[in-house]
Design goal:
By secondary structure, the protein is mainly beta. The protein is built from two helices and 20 strands. The strands form two sheets. The chain has an 18-stranded mixed β-sheet that branches.
Amino acid sequence: MKEKNDQSFTFIERGDYEIDTYNGITVYRFHKSNERLNGYYVVGSELTKWEEFEVNNGVLQGDYITFHPNGNVYTHSIYENGKLHGGNKVYFTSGKIKKLNFYNKNELFDKEMTYFESGQIKSESKVKNGEIIESVYYDLLGNIVSQKFIENNRTIRQKIKFGKVVSEEIASNYDNFNALKYYDDDGNLEIYVRLKKTDNTTFIIELDSLENEIKRIDMRKNPEEALKYKKYFN
């Protein structure tokens, strides 16, 4: 970040520039002259600084920083030739780190972390091919409260209490299979249920642990029976 007495930057106001996009790359131009910005710029007023960034011939190159109204950094990103490349940070108004992830030429990669304002880890995720494939979420005491992962081409989201899985959301990554599992206090399967929509109606389908169909309810023809399952889909 540049200090206001540092002559290596140019101070401008919010309305002094505009942005265009070409082939996915943002280009910064002066509003009046339409010339491309070039160098390090601080955007704000005499009392407030909103953002600062470095551009090379109008294209972001290096730091891009935004600020909270209290003056603390809100976001800090790194760009290379107009693309996010490197660490990307988000901060609480207090200045404490809130989120950290990494980019490789505009594609999310490696990992993503989020934090409580007290500093404890709130979540940690693995990234592959630009997408989060695994996540674990914690409470303030460090206990796992939920997790997400991919298994057998399905995305599984689990809720956890006292170290035990209490429910699962299951979504297929290749067809329209979506289902919910609920477990009792001993970890036994309580119910396995899914919704299946057709052109004419929606069915509630109850499955056993091997995904064999136990019961099928037409929600339009049997609304009272379908209401018995409402709590599971809430």
